[in-house]
Amino acid sequence: MRLLKTQVICLANQIGGCGKTSSAVSMGAAFATLGYSVCLVDADPLCNLSMSFGINCDNLYREGKCTLADAFLKKKPAVEIKQDFEGRFPALLSLVPGNHGLSSSSVKLEAQLQGLIAGNEISSMDADDHRNEHRLRLRKSIESLRGVYDIVLIDTAPNLDFVMTAALVASDWFIIPVFPSGYDLSGLELLLRTVERVRARFNPELRLAGVLLGNYDRNTKLDCQIHDLLKKQFTEQSVFQTTIGRSVRYREATFGMVTVFEMPEAAPQAEQYLALVKEMINRGAKGIVGQTANPLPSVADLSRLAAQEEVQGVVNG
Ligand SMILES: Nc1ncnc2c1ncn2[C@@H]1O[C@H](COP(=O)(O)OP(=O)(O)OP(=O)(O)O)[C@@H](O)[C@H]1O
Ligand SMILES: [Mg+2]
Description:
seven-stranded mixed beta sheet, single chain, about 45% helix, alpha/beta, 7 strands, binds magnesium ion, binds adenosine-5'-triphosphate, Rossmann fold
């Protein structure tokens, strides 16, 4: 380990397709390239993160191997679930694979609970304590990675369900990846309200590491306006200075089940993620951290900008 303490970072935005998984993969590879040890955690039932590393989550079940579902259902420590990648990012990158059944874990835990109540093993008055304990299971499982890895990166699903909020409960930091479209930004208010509830009930230490603008084209007026608006509303400090440019290389990397760091033709994309993690490390070193990410971007403003851009697109042909 190079850091004094393990930092657990969750990528959170309930809007689909805004760069959570791509950023988890590329940031993991960037930290590993700089010599930091990283464990990626796939908390999305779609298992895109696991697939990015060539892991087929269906086969894991058949092979009797553990997945993140075991953290919830069997209280398995993540350090006993993680897999290492021989020959890739030697000894510095590991992954806790996802499970397509993750989304049903809360239903299974609730059914267990109802069974205990029906069997008179607990009273219904105890049930809330048990539900709270369920929400802490991922955190407890990930505790086992503390002191082992410098960085733990949790990829989450595009919703705010039990597993996603358990990832917030388990994290020290959250990053909000955003693509520059009015739709991508409209859900931020609910995300931040959810973060406030997680802070109040389970994890007061949870902090915003930054808003990350990806799929960004600095030659497009709308993209620049959205970048400025984010900085205005979230404060300059809370939006990463590093932006991730629009490029087909990310889809190519996903398709080839490699990271942009393993594609020579994607060197500029790898450079951007290196710049991003260096920015994070420097911020940490200087003690500059984003606090609560309020005030929120005005959804009305963003919709107006998006509409203007559409009209311009029509006028310009
Ligand atoms: N900078 C970028 N430029 C162009 N395409 C990108 C960029 N980053 C990611 N993509 C592509 O955008 C798509 C969505 O990205 P990604 O899967 O990372 O989003 P996500 O937030 O994890 O989605 P979901 O919420 O569905 O899990 C993918 O096809 C990915 O390859
Ligand atoms: Mg994803």
